[in-house]
Request: fold
Amino acid sequence: MKYSEEEIVALLKAKSRKGFDYLYENYSRAIYGVIFNVIPNEDDAQDLMQDVFVKIWNNIGQYDETKGRLFTWMLNIARNASIDKTRSKEYKKDAKNQSLDNSVNSINGRHSEQMNVDHIGLDKILTTLKEDQRVLVELIYLKGYTQAEVSEMLDVPLGTVKTRIRSAIMSLREKVVEQ
Amino acid sequence: MKTNELIESGILETYVMGAASPEERALVEANINDPLIRQELSEIENALINVAVKMEKDVPADVKNKLEATLFGTETNHQAANQETKVIPMTPVKVNWMARAASVALLLSVGLNLFQFVKHGETKEKLAAIENTNTVLAGEVKVVKQDMIFYETISDFFQRGDIKMIQLDAVNNKQGDAMIFMDAKSGKVAIKANHLPVLDNDHQYQLWALVDGKPVDMGVIPNDVLGKDQLAMLKSISGMQAFAITKEPYGGKASPTLEEMVVMGNV
Reply:
């Protein structure tokens, strides 16, 4: 049985168990991937997965299909929850303790994390981008940095950040067509 | 902002990525019924979802079990309550009073279950309402926190910095003036734009610093501080000879539109 996004939303709004099962079956792996990319730690990522699904379940009434797809909405919830976690005091403290071992120090706990783009499929699609575009997609879409943070980190004007994102996604759109 | 300008601006992409500023989000949502914008957004979404699914990661089964307990745990409890309802064996002919007592007991037990079930439903609703309020409050706290951090930054700036004031005056027969506060030590720049004419949502003022005759982007001034006694912190700079402000399409540009220069001042 395959449901359209519209049908899933209707099921979820009706608090249907079937809707939950279908949602979990089809979207949990992508959502977990997004979380794990920001929080590369199994325990924390699993906790967050709980929070994110509870949030989706409770806030489905706020989802507005005119503003975009359910998938996008859920991915944004997952990314935001993950970023909030990295900004929380306890997480920063943990991250600091962990980094004592590898002596990587930085002002902000998040900056010390290494990119862990270790998915072959993801690597394959992102390496088709120009280096300066790839970095932006990774930092903003996969790591959840704001445009302003990225602009400062890379010392690139905000306007340039936007135009680069635009060209990066234009080229990712061509990949969708090719597939 | 015209439809094609919005499409070219990169704002739609940042919107789908969840990285748009509140102003940008409002701008996209104001235009969301435009079929061209819709089409564009949907293609951007597909491209990004295509990236997201490449990150898929197997979720330990444990996660789903816990989640089900959180979301539906109440249902299993309810079943358990039903199972606990004891059926009392009856021997109707022999001892009639026992049968009566049993039916009364059964009735009471059913009634009690029903009462608990209804009450349970109410509690669940109340809990959902409280959870909602919590989310709203958390959002408000976040905004207040951001405001506080902003004011701390401003107060720190004025207390510790070696502040120079640079007055920007109208040029090109335009109206208005603005005041720049610059910390000579850190190069941090704040601007007070209370005398700049208010702009529509399609435009923003952008500050430029002139360094060796070349304009350097200092960022856009948020429209909500225009005409108000509020400061906005912009980018840091050193070695500049002058500052100037131009009126640009919303979000700013990579290089200044010189005929739209509004005010300017030498350092």
